[in-house]
Design brief:
Distance between the termini: 35 Å
Radius of gyration: 19 Å
CATH superfamily of the largest domain: DhaL domain
CATH topology of the largest domain: Serine Threonine Protein Phosphatase 5, Tetratricopeptide repeat
Order of helices and strands: HHHHHHHHHEHEEHE
Strand content: 5-15%
Structural class: alpha+beta
Number of domains: 2
CATH architecture of the largest domain: Alpha Horseshoe
Length: about 350
């Protein structure tokens, strides 16, 4: 057992351990990747997100857990790639929101962070589905809420330490169930790759809080994860062979973002539109509206937004973004096999 770390140092260690776990299992996660498209890059995309989070956490000088996690989530979201990489960044940004002004994690703040992370992640997607990392997040959120409700001392470190192994066990059970929740996973005889990646991140959090090391065997025995497993990858989905993954960062007000979501939904699938943070004078004070909903008094405020879509009409999607606001950056990647 290694020494326990607290506060901001714990956040940095969490990201360091998460990065190591994803580096070790990147190929395994890539091999599992059959949903939403079999492009074999889930492990790489989630690893890239955590690397950015780690760099951002190392660069910020604060003892405020919410501030550090928010900075990490925002920088990761601005650079994120892929469905799972983007959703992981959204999850971290949501997790940060209830932690502003706190310097240590408790079972109560962990529960509130997971609740907010779930809300942000589900709201970011136009068509969220069960059988993904969202299902795992919900299971862990509900268990954390139950543990917080039954804890004799909400502020005690013992309550937090005791909660993490239970949450990892619940997460692993939820990952196992994903195989039967999505037909494409059932056909391939695998669990969802993003869900498995989130399990690694949660196990890294367990190890951080308890002063232990991540479990290198946490994925062992899951469908598609055993030694010698060669998951049956389904054929690429029928459709336009020119389909691409489009990632954008744009400056929009919330009403413009809502209108853009409607148009992007018409042009593609796997749509994620989520606020990164406010720009201009309000950037130091305001927080982005969860899931893109405009709060009272925020209708005219401009935010940076991250946009993800699988589409065969990339130019039309880019034009839709330009019509809604200012396009800061964009990347287009063919929806073919990754590494």
């Amino acid at each position: 057992m290694k020494g326990k770390v607290k506060g901001a140092a714990a956040v940095r260690r969490w990201f360091a351990l998460g990065q190591s776990a994803l580096e070790e299992h990147r190929g395994q996660l890539n091999q599992l990747n059959v949903f939403p498209v079999p492009d074999s890059d889930t492990g790489a995309n989630m690893l890239a997100t955590v690397r950015t989070c780690r760099r951002a956490a190392d660069d910020v000088d604060t003892d405020d857990l919410g501030e550090m996690l928010a900075r990490a989530g925002a920088e990761a979201m601005a650079e994120a790639s892929g469905n799972s990489g983007t959703l992981l960044a959204v999850l971290i940004s949501g997790f940060a929101e209830p932690l502003h002004g706190t310097q240590r994690l408790t079972v109560e703040t962990l529960s509130r962070g997971l609740q907010r992370a779930s809300l942000r992640a589900w709201s970011a997607l136009s068509q969220p589905v069960e059988g993904t990392m969202l299902s795992v997040l919900n299971a862990v959120r509900d268990q954390a809420s139950a543990l917080a409700a039954s804890a004799a001392e909400l502020e005690s470190r013992a309550a937090l330490e005791q909660s993490l192994p239970e949450l990892v066990a619940v997460a692993r059970d939820a990952v196992t169930r994903t195989e039967q929740q999505l037909p494409v996973l059932r056909e391939a005889k695998v669990v969802d790759s993003g869900a498995a990646g989130l399990l690694l991140i949660l196990d890294a959090l367990r190890a951080t809080v308890r002063g232990e090391t991540p479990d290198p065997h946490v994925l062992d025995g899951l469908p598609g994860c055993s030694d010698g497993d060669r998951p049956h990858s389904p054929a690429p989905p029928a459709g336009d062979p020119d389909a691409v993954e489009l990632m954008c960062t744009a400056l929009l007000d919330p009403l413009g973002a809502a209108s853009l979501r409607h148009r992007i939904d018409e042009l593609g699938e796997s749509v994620i539109i989520t606020p990164i943070g406010p720009v201009g004078e309000a950037a130091e004070e305001a927080s982005a509206p969860a899931g893109g909903a405009a709060g009272a008094g925020h209708a005219e405020q401009t935010y940076r937004w991250r946009i993800h879509v699988h589409t065969a009409q990339a130019e039309a999607a880019l034009q839709a973004v330009r019509s809604a606001g200012e396009l800061e950056s964009s990347t287009v990647t063919p929806l073919t096999g990754g590494d």
